Amino acid sequence: MKIVVPVLETEVKGKKLVNAHFGKSKHFAVVDTETGNVEVIENPGIHLPRRRGIYIAEMFKEKGVQAVLVKEMGAGAFDKIRNVMGIKVYLIPPEIKFLDEAVEAFKEMKLKELPAPNEEPHEH
């Protein structure tokens, strides 16, 4: 199964950090849970002021992604990814900081499915 986690460019002791901001994440790690293969891809909508979720969702679909692991996700991205594309969204709890920990928790079925967008609207 292919899952995706937004990640930061910064690594700590060679371990990738989870990016709390989904739509603004520059990179996503596509992880094959069977092989352990990790492919880091660039956010195709990063330079857009809004509606990044559409581009991200389409890229996930092309990659055959079946689940997305996030700390938070806004309404637009949530709608495209979960409701339109049918990709499940799971919540990474605050204590999990690293990509490998998030993937392990998912494989052990410790993550809860995100029932609705949980990103706080930002004041512009």
* SSE topology string: EEEEHEHEHE
Q: Report how far the terminal alpha carbons are from each other.
A: 38 Å
Overall mean pLDDT stands at 93
Q: How many structurally independent domains?
A: 1
Largest sheet: 7 strands, mixed
CATH architecture: 2-Layer Sandwich
CATH topology name: Nucleotidyltransferase, domain 5
Which blocks of ≥5 consecutive residues have pLDDT under 50? none
What is the CATH first-level class name?
Alpha Beta
Q: What does the radius of gyration come to?
A: 13 Å
Q: At the fourth CATH level, what is the homologous superfamily?
A: Dinitrogenase iron-molybdenum cofactor biosynthesis domain
Helix content: 25-40%
Task: Count the DSSP helices.
Answer: 3
What gross morphology would you assign? globular
